[in-house]
């Protein structure tokens, strides 16, 4: 990966999108094991239905992790200074999530040249699931 440089990046530049396969029960089980998030609403169909949901659904932090992957495939993790999101919708089984990002500001922060990047994940219907932003230091 060639890291972007501050001088080469422009406001409006888009990060290479990250298209993910449809969410499966296996996806949720693997993330539960890796993250320690064993909330039954994400892995137990009976529990989810008793809670009023049609089925299990993705952990919010799984969606945030996908957005983190989008950012760190563009710039090294060591250059990430801040990463904030707002959860705006549930990612259900079968949703094929697309993560995207766009540079919205160039600024100096704590003596470093940085860019502010808006990030978004949406399902195959164009419904936003997570929106947020990251502050990335660029050389």
From TrEMBL:
Domain MaoC-like: 21-121
Pfam families (UniProt xref): MaoC_dehydratas
Organism name: Variovorax paradoxus
TM regions (residue ranges): none
Domain of life, per lineage: Bacteria
Gene3D superfamilies reported in the protein's UniProt record: Hotdog Thioesterase
Name by which UniProt lists this protein: Dehydratase
């Amino acid at each position: 990966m060639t890291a972007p440089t501050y001088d080469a990046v422009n406001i409006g530049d888009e990060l290479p999108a990250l298209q993910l396969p449809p969410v499966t029960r296996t996806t949720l089980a693997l993330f539960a094991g890796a993250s320690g998030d064993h909330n039954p609403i994400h892995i137990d169909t009976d529990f989810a239905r008793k809670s009023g949901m049609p089925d299990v659904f993705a952990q919010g932090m799984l969606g945030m992790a996908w957005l983190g992957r989008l950012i760190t495939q563009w710039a090294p993790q060591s250059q990430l200074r801040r990463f904030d999101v707002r959860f705006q919708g549930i990612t259900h089984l079968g949703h094929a999530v697309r993560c995207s990002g766009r540079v919205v500001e160039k600024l100096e922060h704590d003596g470093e040249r940085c860019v502010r990047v808006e990030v978004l994940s949406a399902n195959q219907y164009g419904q936003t699931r997570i929106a947020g932003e990251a502050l990335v230091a660029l050389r």
